[in-house]
Amino acid sequence: MKPQLNTIIWDFNGTLLHDVDAIIDANNEINRRYGIPPITKEHYRQHFSYPPMAFYEAMGYNFKEIPYEKISAEFIACYQEKQAACGLTPGVLAALEEFCRRGMEQMVFSAHNQRLLEEKLEQLGVKHYFSHIDGEEGVVVTGKVQRAKGFAARRDLSRALLIGDTSHDFETAAALGCACALFSGGHEDAARLQKNNAPVFETIEALTEYILK
What is the mean pLDDT of residues 86-101? Predict the structure, then answer.
């Protein structure tokens, strides 16, 4: 194990939770309601970004006519129905167990709603692995960087590493003042992730091996 690390900070959507298909299905269901063309998984992984408002505008939404908050609330409701069937990303449970066995503190830092985040972690049977779970208070996703700066002001995370699946996770790690490793099987493809100054892995197993070697 890398001797300097004592804490692992996990992203939730697309990293801990294997939910990319559910996200795309929910997006396309909302798109149909408003006459917006459907998107493919390839398009989503190449273009999704935080905060999501610009992504929705690029799909064709006009937030001068329809409030972004309305679309966001409809999407969350639709996604929650589909998320019920989502499980852990392959390799995550073994990683949680191994990091725990080695005495590493583990946290979750997410753009997901706090209450829904805790409920899903409980349903998945992994909530007990985490000493701290940090999500959004509302349903409108604004991103994690500002919250990360506030959290970093209260905690020394110089020996932590964030595991995520987006460029926004890399930005969040920088705001937290910690290292970062990225998983390319989530919400962004490898080509986008490789533009960040962080190692990129195709599987959680390979990422875990990198941390522990």
Answer: 98
Q: Which residues have a Cβ under 8 Å from the Cβ of 209 and sit 6 or more positions away?
A: none
Q: Which residues of 33-56 are buried (b: 16+ CB within 10 A; e: fewer)?
A: eeebeebeeeebbeebbbbbbebb
What tens digit of pLDDT does each residue of 17-41 get? 999 999 999 999 999 999 999 999 9
Tokens representing residue 127 in the block: 């909530």
Length of the chain in terms of residues written? 213
* Residue 24 to residue 42: CA distance in whole angstroms: 10
Least reliable range by pLDDT among 54-63, 131-140, 147-156, 183-192: 131-140
pTM of the model: 0.94
Provide DSSP, 130-179. Answer: -SEEEEESSSS---SHHHHHHHHTTS--TTEEEEESSHHHHHHHHHHT-E
